[in-house]
Amino acid sequence: MTNDVADRTNLYDLAPQELRATLAEVVSPPFRIKQIAEWVHVHGVDSFDAMSNIPKELRARLAERYTLEFPHVVERTEPAPDGSVKYLSVLGDGNRIESVYMPMRDRTSVCLSSQAGCAVGCTFCVTGFFGAGRNLTPSEMLGQLFTVQHEHHVPAEMTNVVFMGMGEPLLNFDFLVTALDIMYATIAPKRITVSTSGIIPGIEDLARLDRRPNLAISINAPDRKRREEIMPITKKYPLDELIAALKKYPAEKGRDITVEYVLLAGYNDAPADAVALARLIRGLHAKVNAIPFNTDPNLPPWMKRPTDEAIDLFVDTLVRNEVAVTVRRSKGREIAAACGQLRGRTERKRRRVIPSVSEEPGRAGTRSR
Ligand code: SAH
Ligand code: SF4
User: What are 164-189's pLDDT values in tens digits?
Assistant: First the structure.
């Protein structure tokens, strides 16, 4: 008799060596185990019937004990002018998460969620606005990746993975590492980037791994005071301690740390802020990714995207201060790039009160522009 889905182990939740040990309970010749593992880790199949070189009877036996289930896609946006497509998927327990397909000239990036919500609560982020959610399992992270790869026919060797969707990946460390270990079967660690709000113990744990993904850090403000205003987590993991942890992070050739910096008009986008940011990250092997703020009705109304001129001035100032910088100008912007916004359109409101204009943090009137 077939077990209930909930009782069956999802093979995508098992680290590679665990998968082989688990399969050995039901499958005897070692070459069969290898074949099945290849269907899972290399081909990313979501049904046992797809395992065409496995005897039917064995496939049926596997299906009785295990599943290969992925999050179920419930909505795809129309492709944005840059080709990006955002996916909204529902999990077994009804939670909803987002992933994004981002085609580029010679490669494709897939942006994955690591949690169904986020407890960090950054004030500029829709995911943070809706509050904490549970950790995603390895199968739920891998399922997002394989779904996008299959739908867009993206070969693994052309795929970059970025954990920049919903959630804080380093607060889901163990499941993240299992998912990474499975991804490494087809995607090199240097093609995978984990973005964090600055969870120092998680960064230290990552530093100890033999195979490390690239690290992206959401700095978002050039000083401790402003960072604490918009990113509450920084009270627990202060900016100076974060920078010290990053300085200790093992530098690998050609693999700089990415410093993400959400540009908020009139708040952190002045040339003086660029100079302060350059000073802050001096000595780190880092490049800056400036991300113009994505507006959303759920976010404080004072938060605005800077003008293109202000963005250019900020970027030029960084460059003059010898900082390598890229700007995420339009990748998926038309489909509400920052994750959580698609889910946020339909989710019921409200955990947190939106600060009124008079509560606006920061430096009103101190801008030179
Ligand atoms: N929790 C991790 C990864 C997910 S957020 C982190 O914070 O790094 C991924 C990126 O989206 C972060 O750099 C974050 O600063 C940025 N982001 C969040 N909300 C945004 C918004 N409304 N506009 C632009 N970028 C945003
Ligand atoms: Fe969480 Fe990242 Fe959003 Fe902050 S920016 S609330 S850490 S998902």
Answer: 999 999 999 999 999 999 999 999 99
pLDDT tens by residue, 61-73: 999 999 999 999 9
Quick: pLDDT tens for 215-236.
999 999 999 999 999 999 999 9
Count the alpha carbons within 13 Å of 341 in the hemisphere toward its beta carbon. 19
Q: Which residues pair with 193 in a beta bridge?
A: 162, 214
Report pTM: 0.91
Report the separation in Å between the CA atom of 98 and the middle of ligand 2, taken as the mean of its atom positions.
14
pLDDT score, position 348: 57
Return the best residue to mutate from 168, 172, 352 for the ligand 2 pocket (most ligand atoms within 8 A of CB).
168
Q: Is-catalytic flag, 98?
A: yes
Distance between CA atoms of residues 3 and 160, nearest Å: 36
339 has catalytic annotation: yes
The answer to whether the CB of 108 is under 6 A from ligand 1 is no
pLDDT surpassing 60 at residue 364:
no
